[in-house]
Amino acid sequence: MRRPRMFLVDDLGQPLPTHVEQAVMHWLPRLRATFPSLEDATLVDVLEAAALRVVRRESRGGRLEHVHAYAWTAIRSVAISHVRLGAERLRSVTTEMTSDDPVTGRVRGPSSVEARVLVRQLLRQLTPLERRVFWLKLAGYSTREIATKVSRAPTTIDSLHSRSLARLRAAARRGGRPGGASA
Fold this sequence. Notes:
This protein has helices at about 20-25, 30-35, 40-60, 65-95, 110-125, 130-140, 145-150, 155-175. About 15% of the residues are buried. It is elongated. The chain has eight helices and no strands. It has two domains: about 20-90; about 105-175, Arc Repressor Mutant, subunit A (Orthogonal Bundle). The chain has about 180 residues and is mostly helical.
């Protein structure tokens, strides 16, 4: 089934120059292959941001001779930024960062160490496959993408993810200790 045509616009909602839009859209299949974790809405954001970079560059120095090559460089740069932003979100969720230290944004003192130890203890409650599914879900992969990566059915991935969440919640109520009743 063919996907609907995407229309890229600038910050004001105006269509981008045709040659820039064509140069950016040319790289869409490669973008999907290189960054499989990016969803369609994010892909559009990446393409529009990259196209705006091309437009800004052309406004400073005239039409680019190698607009396709410049477009791919801009696309790759923007996509890497999106992936890194997702990784930062993942890191902040797992370590429960707050801004006690204005420079690094990390918690100072024993509370941050305790939080990291608790997260590690909780994750030890999961099987390796449950842990992998949990991290991939947290990183933003869809159920179908995870199923492909771990060679399981999408329904199995959903079951693994809900089971791992239930086990993590139960372990958190026990204070990170394995097993049945809390001490």
